[in-house]
Amino acid sequence: MKECIEEFMNYLAVERGLAQNTLLAYRRDLNKYSSFLAKKGIQGAVQVKREHISDFMFDQKKRGLSAASICRSLAAIKMFHRFLVRERHANEDPTHLIDTPKKWKRVPNVLATSEIESMINTVKGKGWQAVRDKAILELFYASGMRVSELLNLKVDSVNLELGYVRCVGKGSKERIIPVGRRACEAIEKYCQKVRTKLVKDKTTVFLFLSRLGKKISRQSIWKIIKNCAKQAHIRTEIKPHTLRHSFATHLLERGADLRSVQEMLGHSDISTTQIYTHVDRERLKTIHKQFHPRG
Fold this sequence. Notes:
By secondary structure, this protein is mainly alpha-helical. The chain has helices spanning 2-14, 20-39, 50-62, 67-86, 113-121, 128-143, 147-151, 181-198, 218-231, 242-253, 258-265, 270-273, 281-291, and strands at 158-159, 164-168, 174-178. It has a three-stranded antiparallel beta sheet.
């Protein structure tokens, strides 16, 4: 089984070109699956039956995993078994009659525009850290990028004159995101007054750097955001995507069309973007009241 998993992972990396984080998730899920089967005395893929996969899913549920996590594991297992049949390591796919569990679409945590402003305004001073942190917050909210996209952003991917950033997202897909005046001003100030002092190696291409001159870490970015939220007295729980959720929601509240927001977020499926439309009920109520004959 381990050899089959390794062959499958090579296929995903080389032929499918999946992102590193996706590959790690697939490997983690398949290793759990393989360990579960081993405890059942199953060492080869040809021995796997439909009931073994069902038992694995029930076991995951008993362990307290969410429906989203179980769905992700099942997706990896289905792809794995289809690969084995195609490569003739197995004659049958035991997953073809197994349905994916239904997932509840969770309401994203969203901050009000006033809360975002308060967070950004907590970053004061002329020191290098304040200037850098302000640029990070302004760009994060202005672009709706993922944390991984923000920390991997390169200097030559930012065009302040035209007001856009070139972002590389999941699956190495590239997209252009416009950014506003405030974000451009904050980034320009950071580049002129701070980044040049932080650079230790002139070959460094990343925009946001740590005090050691290296690419800023995911942990550092979230420490900045949590500290600013705390100083702004925001009681809403801050999660990794909170600013991204707020970016999308605020655009839709002000009349942006769903397709444009989808493109800026880098969603491959518009149904993923549609989750943000539910938060715009008050705006819909206002439109209904204004234009309906009996509003």
